[in-house]
Amino acid sequence: MILTQCAVCATDLGLTLGKKCGRCSTRYCGPECQVQHWKDGGHDQLCKKIKKAGGAEQYNANTKYTEAVAVAAEVCAEDTKGQTCYICTQALHWKTKEGLVRGCSCRGTAGFAHVSCLAEQAKILVAEAEENNLGTKALNERGKRWYSCSMCEQDYYGFVRCALGWACWKTYVGRLETNWPRSFAMHQLGIGLHEAGRHEDELSVREAELAMLRQLGAPEGNLLVVQGNLANTYDKLGRVEEALNLYRDVYSGELILYGTAHEQTIISASNYAWTLKALHRYDEVKTLMHKTLPVARRVLGESDITTLRLRWNYASSLYLDSGATLDDLREAVTTIEETERTARRVLGGAHPTAMAIADSLRRARAALAARGDDVSAVCEALRKAEV
């Protein structure tokens, strides 16, 4: 995570509070914790090593990156068996000895790579754009290599996305806060931690990112994006009411700033609806989806992952509603069948979203199959089982 806590007592220090070790910049809430860490916490043995690595934040990033790469390679081990990296053509990386990963939508023998090879590729592309002053558009385009596959062009997910998030942060953590790659890297780290389910660590990153952007006077649109991500983190941590309030504010703000046909507004509508569904407010979900889905289809297309999630969310609200009619259940099944086929074709069957939609399809079919029984009782049971 971003180092915003005392290394001894974990007191939240934000971006500026407390004090730092004069040699390695390890953060403390005060001199007492610093002395304790030196005497009893092993800092006397690590201080020089941390300084040599570039300071506490860099040392932490390096350590977490190594751990994340090992986890990603282990998770992908079965899928990558007998394959080679499409970048360096080796099975084991010549220097790090890390295994292969594949966390995108590539199929067959395509898309296998080492995280370090993917990271080096992205680093070189961004560096070229910076050195040649190619501008913001080129930086954004080349920056995609930090999170999306150059072959299938789909975003990485799960533990692979987390490892790449740490790789990005490790690469740019030493930059000034006003420097684009550092802010970009913090954002990618937050997404990576979210993908890996590391939501407590993600919360620290999201809060630090929001505080930094406010301190720098970032544009309103940037703040709304980070607030939306923070709401997502609240949701995953079970702080659903806080998430709902923040999602509503973000969606309202983006409606004013961008209008209904902007991609970011559509994404925020999807997030807002998801939390409404978690609170069993199905009528509100349906109303919001009736407004948003036609726009998403027109602006993003039928195969876009946000459109797929919107359709899935809408159909789920149909079959989970205790007041669902038989027509509602039939519509839910038909909609999720279409959505599942598209998700499997576009994202691949192993993608978390495709797998979750397939699970919802089983639930919707079960509700429809029970049409001769008490439909409200079936919907209630499904709602309790819904993840």
UniProtKB/TrEMBL annotation:
GO molecular function term, any single one: zinc ion binding
One of the Pfam families matching this protein, by short name: TPR_10
Keyword Zinc-finger found: yes
Entries under InterPro entries matching the protein: NLR-like, TPR-like_helical_dom_sf, Znf_MYND, Znf_RING-CH, Znf_RING/FYVE/PHD
Keywords carried by this UniProt record: Metal-binding, Zinc, Zinc-finger
Top-level taxon of the source organism: Eukaryota
Ranges of residues in domain MYND-type: 6-47
Record-given protein name: MYND-type domain-containing protein
Species the sequence originates in: Pelagomonas calceolata
Lineage, opening ranks: Eukaryota, Sar, Stramenopiles, Ochrophyta, Pelagophyceae
